[in-house]
Write a structure and sequence with these properties.
The chain starts with a strand and ends in an 8-residue tail after the last strand. Helix content is 30%, strand content 26%. The longest helix has 15 residues. The chain is globular and about 55 Å long. With 238 residues, it is an alpha+beta fold. The strands form two sheets. It has an eight-stranded mixed β-sheet with strand order 11-5-10-9-8-7-6-12, sandwiched between helices. A four-stranded mixed β-sheet has the order 1-2-4-3, with helices on one face. Strand 7 and strand 8 form a beta hairpin. The chain contains seven helices and twelve strands. It has two domains: 53 residues, Leucyl/phenylalanyl-tRNA-protein transferase, N-terminal domain (Alpha-Beta Plaits, 2-Layer Sandwich), CATH 3.30.70.3550; 165 residues, Aminopeptidase (3-Layer(aba) Sandwich). It is found in: Cytoplasm.
């Protein structure tokens, strides 16, 4: 099967079901990172992932890694940590710092190039991309970012500079997201970290079916307003 090159004059993608089996999910190459193309991709269960300097590659793997909120797992040690930590978690207060940290805090290299950062910052400014920040005494120590598709959230990357910071970010966000009607978190490809939190794999066809349903379910503007998600233990409750 030949890999299709995207036209610079069209936002059309191939059917995700035509993606290659090896490498798993590779669907197309080329195109650009314009906001319209990125949003079109996410609406179809497609995302960009490529080595900086090479052609843009577009993926839709089968199976797809997802996290169902009801299957989210917190270890006993993490629950104990959460009861005593002074971390503070916020939403949409430092998107640039979070995506930059996700690019720079990886030992195995990064696909998050300057072009990716610029493209997703534009999506953030247009209320499509969102960040979660974890703070310790005013210092950013962890976080994650991704793209909202109605009641489905497409997680892109996370980072941690302190113990359990990225897990804390995901935990705080998940409870907030579900509280507003969130149904599913897309993890794209399963890894040991997400698997330890309860992520699982489902057939791509099932994921695309859920995406088509969930992307039309609005959570309301209040869900994505900049706000604090978890207060330190000695802070009065809301």
């Amino acid at each position: 099967m030949l890999l299709r090159e995207l036209s610079p004059f069209s936002l059309q993608f191939p059917d995700p079901e035509t993606a290659l089996r090896e490498p798993n999910g590779l669907l197309a190459y080329g195109g650009d990172l314009s906001p319209d193309r990125l949003l079109s991709a996410y609406r179809q269960g497609i995302f960009p992932w490529y080595t900086p300097g090479d052609a843009i590659l577009w993926w839709s793997p089968d199976p797809r890694a997802v996290l169902f909120p009801e299957q989210f797992h917190l270890s006993r040690s993490m629950k104990k940590f959460m009861r005593h930590t002074r971390y503070r978690v916020t939403l949409n207060q430092s998107f640039t710092e979070v995506i930059t940290a996700c690019a720079n805090e990886r030992d195995d290299g990064t696909w998050i190039s300057d072009d990716i950062i610029e493209a997703y910052l534009y999506l953030h400014q247009s209320t499509h991309a969102h960040s979660v920040e974890v703070w310790d005494d005013g210092q950013l120590v962890g976080g994650l970012y991704g793209i909202a598709q109605g009641s489905l959230f497409c997680g892109e990357s996370m980072f941690s500079r302190a113990d359990n910071a990225s897990k804390f970010a995901l935990t705080a966000f998940l409870y907030h997201f579900v509280g507003y009607g969130g149904r599913l978190i897309d993890c794209q490809v399963l890894n040991p970290h997400t698997a330890s939190l309860g992520a699982t794999e489902i057939p791509r066809r099932d994921f695309l079916y859920r995406l088509a349903q969930y992307r039309t379910q609005s959570l309301g503007n209040a869900c994505w307003q900049p706000q604090t998600l978890i207060f330190p233990p000695d802070t009065p409750s809301r």
